[in-house]
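This is your field. Please look over both lines of this record.
***
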Amino acid sequence: MTNKMTKALAVMVAFGAISTSAFANSNAVGGGWEEGKGYFYNGTQNPSPFISTYEVKEYPNSHEGKVVNNPNNFREAKAVGHTKWKGKWHYTRAQMTWLGMVRLDSKRQWDYDETHAETDWGPTEYSGKTFWGNEE
C-alpha cells in the first residue's frame, strides 16, 4: 500500500470514529440492533465503543430492527426499527452506515407506547443499525 493510500485510510478511520460517536454518544441509547451482530441491551453485544448502555434500568416491551431490500431496485436497502414500550415516552432510530460512518439517519422518532423509524433507501453495501432509548 502506498504512503498516500495509508494516510487516506487513516483519515477515513479517524473521521469514522468521530462520525460514529455522533449517533449515540450518551447513555440515552438503551439498546438496539446491528446487522450481522444482532440485538444488544445493557452493554451486551455492544456495536460501538462509543455507546454506553451499562446504566440502563428500564427496557421496552419489544424492539425489532432489520434491513429491508427495495422490491423495485435490488441495489437499495433501508434500516427499519420498531419499538413497543407501553406507557413510556421513548424513541426509535434507524441508521445505515458505511465504513463506520453514518450515511442515512431517521433521527429519533419520539412517541408514547409505540415508535417506528426508517431511513431513506441507500446502497445495499451499507449496514443497518437501529436504536431505542428514553432519554434526550
About this structure: The chain is about 15% helix and 45% strand. The longest strand covers residues 76-98.
